[in-house]
Specification:
Elements lengths: L3 H8 L3 E2 L2 H23 L4 E7 L3 H16 L3 E7 L5 H13 L5 E4 L9 H7 L11 H8 L8 H12 L8 E5 L6 H10 L3 E5 L6 H5 L4 E4 L17 E4 L3 E3 L2 H8 L3 H11 L2 E3 L4 H4 L5 E2 L6 H20 L3
Parallel strand pairs: 1-11, 2-3, 2-4, 5-6, 5-7, 7-8, 8-11
Antiparallel strand pairs: 9-10
Bound molecules: NADPH dihydro-nicotinamide-adenine-dinucleotide phosphate.
The site of NADPH dihydro-nicotinamide-adenine-dinucleotide phosphate has 26 residues, from helix 13.
Length: 319
Amino acid sequence: METVESREERRGVAAILDGAHVAEEIKRDVARDVEALKGEHGVTPCLVVVRVGEDPASAVYVGNKVRTSEELGLSSKHLALPADTTEVRLIGEVTGLNAREDVDGILVQLPLPKGIDERRVNEAIDPSKDVDGYHPLNIGRMTLGQPAFVPCTPAGIMELLAREGVSVRGAHAVIVGRSHIVGRPMAQLLLQRDATVTVCHSRTPDLAAHTRRADILVCAVGSPGLIRGEHVKPGAVVVDVGMNRLTGEEQAREFFGEDSARRIETIRKRGFTLVGDVHPAEVSRVAGRLTPVPGGVGPLTVAMLMRNTVTAARRRRGL
Ligand code: NDP
């Protein structure tokens, strides 16, 4: 009899690398830790998310972070500042939050409006409350392998690989993208776990020649469907960090193949559907395991933010 497995094997469909499931596990652990902190020490970890302006994607991300904090028993505040907020005022707000005993984690949602220097704002955050892990002190410590707040997306991906039994030691990991928040920290973390690491970027000639050698391929570019079947080694583990809004029905048909009817329905309802940096229909025919978009890396990022906030609450009190 034909089973789902045999059908998938014949079509060569990659198994799902289930970020959403692992994120739920992490969140369960966090909720338990929060309960213990409250019960044993009377401490409720507190996260403040600062948002400037009206970027609709940022509003969704912030809402998600605040909602998840509340679900897990953390205390959480959303500080929404108007689009014309000056850099001086924003840094003033951050300095105020640094001084507050009851605040454990501070996150300033990116991107910031033009005219505000992200670097200066980032450096104003107290490193002991820097739950996003972007402060140079935390980046430096992480690079040296010292205890640090690690940026949530790469930290979540490491957790995913570990919990899903993907062997990193000795693997050739190729990362596409070298941003400070994903690509570079990802390379450091994989290197620390004994992978051999290649980092590619927009000036890398013949991208496919590199990515085809990857046992583990992490794509963090922001270019819908950039990574095609020809970029992937058969059986590779592929982690798709990209989150791109797709609005065209024709493109949805091209990207999602058999799944396109559901995606087109989403476009008609919400105006867009999300696609990663990986071409889902093509790559799922070649890869061994693949994170879906949505439901892959996104939920892990939020879960790790919660974990970092609990860690901050403990460390600040020497617990
Ligand atoms: P950045 O724009 O900061 O960095 C993009 C990187 O991709 C750069 O290093 C750039 O190279 C490289 N790049 C651009 N074009 C190419 C190309 N054609 N070939 C190879 N490399 C290329 O993006 P982020 O790292 O902030 O984010 C990347 C994606 O991940 C976005 O879609 C973002 O929305 C998503 N994201 C998702 C998260 C999640 O939780 N799921 C969290 C964070 C990000 P160069 O340095 O040379 O310019």
